[in-house]
Amino acid sequence: MLVNDWVHVFAGFFILLSLALGVDSPSNPLFVSRYWLFFTAFVGANLFQYGFTGFCPLAIILKKLGVPESK
Predict the structure, then answer these.
(1) What is the pTM of this model?
(2) Considering the domain boundaries, does residue 70 fall inside one?
(3) Second label for 50, Cα 20 to 30 Å away, from 11, 36, 40, 44?
(4) Measuring CA to CA, which residue among 29, 58, 30 is closest to residue 42?
């Protein structure tokens, strides 16, 4: 997988996890605190700014770990 693929995987995972931990409902056994929704907003804001600037901290880390940028 390429850097861009991993960025999408991490973003999707963190959004789903933070929603599971932050949404309070009687059927949600994973609820911890509503403050987890701030993490969801943080991930969304990073994705939004990446669309305009092309800057992504996770992509920089993945490149340093040796994940290829292209095939």
Answers:
(1) 0.86
(2) no
(3) 36
(4) 58
Contact present, 14 and 47 (Cβ < 8 Å): no
Decide if 22 is inside a domain: yes
Q: What range does the domain containing 48 cover?
A: 3-64
Tell me the pLDDT tens digit for each residue of 38-70: 999 999 999 999 999 999 999 999 999 999 998
String of DSSP letters for 21-64: HH---TT-TT---TTHHHHHHHHHHHHHHHHHH---HHHHHHHH
Burial class (CB in 10 A: 0-12, 13-18, 19+), 69: exposed
Residue 7 inside a domain? The answer is yes
